[in-house]
Amino acid sequence: MGVGMDRVERIRELTEHSDLHERLRSVPPAARIRGLYFKSTIEVLTEAGKLDAYRELFTENYSSVGWYPMIDYLERLAVGAALLKSPKEIDVGLYEIGRSNAAAFASSLIGKMMIRLLSKDPQKLLRQACASRRQSVEYGRWSVEFGPPRTAIITMHEEYIWIASNLRGAAKGTFESIGLDAKVEYALVGPYEGTHTIRW
Description:
- The protein has 200 residues and is α+β, with helices and mostly antiparallel strands.
- It folds into 2 domains: 91 residues, no CATH class; 81 residues.
- The chain contains 9 helices and 7 strands.
- It has a 4-stranded antiparallel beta sheet with strand order 4-5-7-6, with helices on one face.
- Strand 6 and strand 7 form a beta hairpin.
- Helix 3 packs parallel to helix 5, helix 3 packs across helix 6 and helix 6 runs parallel beside helix 9.
- It is globular.
């Protein structure tokens, strides 16, 4: 077996407890995402001491503002999650990467400036999150509604990142970054359609 086949087999083993391969077949060829998402996953793995194992499979570096295929990101995110925890706990790894990414962004210079500008207001923060997403991905759409006090519903259409794990972790981490312990519940209409109900 050649090096290329060894790599393919290793990725398959790491991600076998996820729906990665079905997801990759569903992503439109034109779907793209900014490099900052790749870099965030790499930073989480670096912090956890798991970067060497990741680099055995993926050696590329990314520009934060560059555009890259969505399928490349999903594969690297799933592998990173399996390495962070274990293949059987890939969903936990996806959640933790999402949560850590949000915390890392909030502690960055840009993140701190944004939080100051938004006055730690959850409604402003969620509106900004939806607006920022439009600048960083080229697929799908999100919307946010506010119902009862201290409650928001984010509706996601054609969202290929894992809604139940990675994006739920990101929502949790985003609220932690402004000092709020939010409860984030998810509901799926299909694998790529769903909602987060956030209460704080």
